[in-house]
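lol ok so funny story. i was supposed to be doing the assay writeup but got distracted and ended up predicting the structure for this chain instead. priorities right. anyway since i did it might as well share w the group, maybe its usefull for someone
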Amino acid sequence: MLLGSVLVASINFGFNVSMARLLGPALFAQVAAMVTLLMLFSSVSLSFQMVCAKFVARNGSTRGKLAVFHNLRRAAWMIGFTIAIVLTIARNPIARYLRMPDAWLLVVFALGMAFYTPLGVKRGNMQGLCAFPALSRNFILEAISKLVIAIVLVELGYGVMGAVGAISASIFAAMLIPGPKVPAAIEGESVEVIPASLGEGMQAIVFFVGQVIINNIDIILVKHFFTAELAGLYAAVALVGRVLYFAAWSIVSAMFPISAAAKGEDNKHVLFLSLLIVLLMSVAFIAVLALFPGFIIRLVLGEGFRSAEPLLSLYATATGLYALAVVLMTYEMSHKIANTGWLQLVVSGALVFLIYTFHSNLRKVIVVQIALMALMLLLVSLPFLHSIRRLRWKESI
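and the output, tada:
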């Protein structure tokens, strides 16, 4: 799962780098804004994926797994089409807020959104069955199709419209890519079903709404407050920082169904191993960006983005702090209804408020994120630190 996610992150990185090089900072800012909208709407898709994964893993019977999959898929299609219709109707005000010259970009984008939520259920089923190779293949083929289609369309002269069309086309392609079939129900098998509950669904929605706001709202606000050139530079910095987050998320994706099915001490081992891997990845990533910012910018994005060098390690620091917090939050969600999702939602609201208040330059936007992510990591760590202290106290007795 980790290797597959690294490859997906690399291909997505290649997509963004290709678009930045082919279109330049100003037009790349438009593509980055659409990618950010995709990430915002991913809160719905990821909510369905998490709930599906959790209850497919929890159901011991094939009938239970089938019931969870089919019920969630039916609801996902209705929500997906609703999102597409709303986006199409609201295309003009959204385009004005993001300073986008062509509102039809949002119509092309909406076509992909109709399939994005059902795709989350499909991936959640793979995740719940612990079919990580198939899940990785699905992500990889989606990323490859997006990259190839985008380069072809942009080179043919379709510009930003071609890049956005590639995003929607890749989502449709991922839906068509075959995965492991849901196993047929076994005759005479127990009919006990653990259904996906409303509380679990609300928890997932709250968590992912907060997650996508924290990960993406800065790009939307920078696009709104700053010039197209500066917005493009910031999008390039965020592009590099997201490589770390996507790598960390692969660890979370593998941890979640295992933790949901595990009990007792096995749960703690899964958590500590996941935290250690994400911590080591974060430290190494930040160190490389701090030591070689100029080399990385020139190698990846070219001379036109050199003024973004001082921001690379700062943004990666904010990303690393948040990735560690996500490991703790998703671990807690894997085996109970957690309150950390609401905490994250509050922090995401504070992030929007503080960026609106402090945005005189790009550095301040990132410093605000570092401060808030450090605070959130401290808060979500307190229950775990308390449980460790209590365990040690019992052992000493």
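Residues 71 and 195 are 9 Å apart (CA to CA). The chain has a mean pLDDT of 80.
back to the writeup now i swear
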